[in-house]
């Protein structure tokens, strides 16, 4: 049977293109809030917390080798960003058929 301590990894991103990872040993029965407290984090306004990519509440109990992730809020709506990028580069420079072979029919 496993020992009473849980091995948990906490990941958070304080800024763009920056990820920090901390390995923790917590007592059995520890929750997401306990893991965040142990590494000195408290979710800020709009931040989401999850375990293995699935949204989790602060009172969710952890299992051995769980991965707690703290995600910053999105600054731009991804659909809006894609729409604006498409408008900037035009319909010929984007999409599935942007790089056609010379002399080929449209759509191939």
* Portion in strands: 25-35%
> What are the segments in which pLDDT stays under 50 over at least 5 consecutive residues?
none
Multimerization status: single chain
What is the CATH class designation of the domain at 5-71?
Alpha Beta
First-residue to last-residue Cα separation: 60 Å
Please summarize the sheet with the most strands. 5 strands, mixed
Helix content class: 10-25%
Number of strands: 5
Mean pLDDT: 84
Radius of gyration: 21 Å
Structural class category: alpha+beta
Describe it.
18% of the residues lie in helices and 30% in strands. The chain has a domain at 5-71: Beta-grasp domain (Ubiquitin-like (UB roll), Roll). The chain is built from 2 helices and 5 strands. The chain starts with a strand and ends in a 19-residue tail after the last helix. The protein has helices spanning 32-38, 78-89; strands at 5-15, 18-27, 48-51, 54-55, 67-71. The protein is of the alpha+beta class and 108 residues long. The relative contact order is 0.18. Strands 2-1-5-3-4 form a 5-stranded mixed beta sheet, covered by helices on one side.
């Amino acid at each position: 049977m496993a020992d009473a301590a849980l091995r948990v990894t906490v990941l958070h991103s304080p800024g763009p293109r920056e990820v920090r990872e901390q390995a923790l040993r917590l007592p059995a029965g520890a929750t997401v809030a306990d893991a965040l407290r142990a590494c000195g984090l408290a979710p800020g306004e709009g931040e989401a917390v999850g375990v293995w990519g699935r949204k989790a509440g602060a009172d969710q109990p952890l299992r051995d080798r769980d991965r707690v992730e703290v995600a910053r809020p999105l600054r731009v709506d991804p659909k809006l960003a894609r729409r604006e990028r498409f408008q900037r580069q035009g319909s010929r420079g984007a999409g599935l058929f942007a790089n056609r072979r010379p002399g080929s029919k449209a759509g191939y």
